[in-house]
Specification:
Layout lengths: L7 H7 L4 H6 L10 H8 L3 H12 L14 H33 L3 H41 L2 H19 L5 H12 L10 H38 L5
Helix pairs in contact: 5-6, 5-9, 6-7, 6-8
This protein binds fe (ii) ion (FE2) (2 copies).
């Protein structure tokens, strides 16, 4: 288990994939300061960061971590940072590998894969957009309303709860799309001896998939449950 006394340098030496997580919190992966000191300075909840690191390190930790203990704004902050990171870094990296793949080998399969990925990207981008524009602002205002009880926040909650409810009801975590993609990929085995861009793409895709699993778990089973529980307690649901 990762302790908050460890430094990013130590943690990333042990597992390079954690770099992705530090990047989205704008923490230098080569820093030798311990997590406690960094998080105090940057006003990040160190326990949340440590739980996330442990999940990225071992997906089995996802069932053990108590993400329900964290505040709605902290959870939303992680989810928003992740969306931004997926759009700006992960997806372009995958596209880059696909482009290199077609330059390396011009099999028709590669063009099928590119078209499949285009569709996948379209779906995932619109999924993130609705969450960024509807769900997350709603969760944050609801949390503020619980803290400060202002009329303005109550009006926002009442006006937007129907849209937010619909979104939560129909939320899917892109598992379907990923599963389809995985099925297509498994049918194809690269025949080159050297490390092909296809293998690089597969590896990037599997890291991304793991990331999305953690993301969806926090979104669906923590944030949405918390939000629905607050609304039920407030008894303003379906007003
Ligand atoms: Fe999301
Ligand atoms: Fe989602």
């Amino acid at each position: 288990m990762i302790s908050t006394l460890y430094s990013p340098k130590f943690i990333t030496k042990y597992n390079r994939n954690i770099n992705h997580l530090f990047n989205r919190y704008e923490i230098a992966p080569e820093s030798t300061e311990n997590l406690n000191a960094i998080c105090t300075k940057e006003e990040i909840n160190v326990d949340l960061l440590a739980d996330l690191i442990n999940c990225y390190n071992d997906l089995g930790f996802l069932k053990k971590a108590k993400f329900g203990n964290y505040k709605i704004p902290e959870l939303v902050d992680y989810l928003e940072r992740s969306h931004k990171y997926y759009l700006e870094k992960r997806i372009p990296e995958l596209e880059q590998s696909l482009l290199k793949l077609t330059q390396q080998e011009s099999f028709s399969f590669n063009y099928v894969l590119i078209n499949f990925f285009k569709e996948y990207k379209k779906d995932i981008v619109s999924h993130f957009k609705t969450e960024d524009e509807i769900l997350f602002p709603f969760c944050k205002v609801l949390y503020n309303y619980m803290q400060f009880n202002t009329q303005e926040d109550l009006i926002f909650v009442l006006e937007n709860q129907k849209k937010a409810f619909e979104l939560m009801k129909h939320h899917k975590d892109n598992k379907d799309e990923i599963d389809d993609l995985q099925r297509v990929l498994l049918k194809y085995s690269p025949n080159g001896k050297k490390l092909s861009y296809f293998e690089i793409f597969l590896n990037q895709m599997s890291i991304f998939q793991q990331d999305l699993k953690i993301h969806a778990e926090i979104e669906e089973n923590v944030l949405m449950k918390k939000t629905i529980a607050i609304l039920n307690n407030l008894e303003i649901k379906n007003v």
